[in-house]
Amino acid sequence: MNHEETVEIGDKIVNVLKTIYDPEIPVDIYELGLIYDVLVNDKGQAKILMTLTSPNCPVAETMPKEVEEKVCALEELESVEVELTFDPTWTQDMMSEEAKLELGFL
């Protein structure tokens, strides 16, 4: 897999992430800024570094699994690892302009 293909797969992963919503906020997890990094290597292995709006988030157990399952559905990928982190802590500043507008923060 070459660099161009890994970039293309990265874009596909982002499109999948934009279909996953935080149950308490009507905005997808990508626009909310919950995805810190998406890495794809030339072997078709993906790693997603993400956070939640708070460590006590009710979807702390299910959200990373949902992300992994939906991204794993991409046939170009051999494996997907989702790592949950709270460093740095998520803040509203991490939301995209689109998310802030949708939630009335702009």
TrEMBL record:
Say which domain of life the source belongs to.
Bacteria
Q: Which Gene3D superfamilies match?
A: Fe-S cluster assembly (FSCA)
Where does the signal sequence lie?
none
Q: What is this protein called?
A: FeS assembly SUF system protein
Q: Identify the residues that the record assigns to the MIP18 family-like domain, covering every copy.
A: 11-83
Q: Which Pfam family, giving just one, matches this sequence?
A: FeS_assembly_P
